């Protein structure tokens, strides 16, 4: 693509050794050679897979006043909560919303950052100044306070609405990073070749420049997922999101408000959703660190 454009325009082409290196061996193969990265990948795949499949095969636990705060047993491996519901079933079924909001918010954050950052760096001038001004304004808005205000006026009981809100206010930092990357890339020979061939602004930006940041975008996408999940859990823990349905964050809030930390039989109700979130976040972080080492030649050669 870029090489062909550069050759057609008669410009020198830099060898892209980093891309060839991991493409030749395969990204998955490279990950299997990294114990931490492969362990992170397995953790993420297992937790996401179980969270997506469990609501189909695991029935929703029913409340039973005769089983309130029962300790773990063969009938209820993690015990029951203050409503007599099986905690294990709640944990298995409770990951879908958290994961959906995390991935959805990260996708929106990344998309806004790519479009605004790339176009601002490519056009510069007034467009760049306006984009940076909008970025500064969004960065100064306290997200938690804004979400609390919005929660008072709008029903945030939809995962789509939560993902949209979290994604709409967490893109400025990534936008500035992508803008800096594009400012460097736009001076390269293959971009100059694309301009000489008159390929059009949108193609030059999103076909010639953005794909060269794929590894950087992928790593920041994973980081955005972890940030969105932490923000979502914080919203529920502070009571800023409606307690409709059942997910890990609602379990933590319910355990906190019902005083489960003072009940020895209720420890699993607190620690089970916390452990699920920690394991998911740990898997994402291990995966992102290994991907960074694989995709970044400067780190890989150390």
Automatic annotation (TrEMBL):
Superkingdom as given in the UniProt entry: Bacteria
Keyword Membrane listed: yes
Gene3D superfamilies given in the database record: MetI-like (1.10.3720.10)
Domain ABC transmembrane type-1 as annotated: residue spans: 99-288
InterPro entries named in the record: BP-dependent_transpt_permease, MetI-like, MetI-like_sf
Location of the protein in the cell: Cell membrane
Topology term for the membrane: Multi-pass membrane protein
Transmembrane segments: 38-58, 98-123, 266-287
Family annotation (Pfam families): BPD_transp_1
Alphabetical UniProt keywords: Cell membrane, Membrane, Transmembrane, Transmembrane helix, Transport
Molecular functions (GO terms): dipeptide transmembrane transporter activity
GO cellular component: plasma membrane
Family: Belongs to the binding-protein-dependent transport system permease family.
This protein's name: ABC transporter permease
Species this protein is from: Microlunatus elymi
Species lineage: Bacteria, Bacillati, Actinomycetota, Actinomycetes, Propionibacteriales
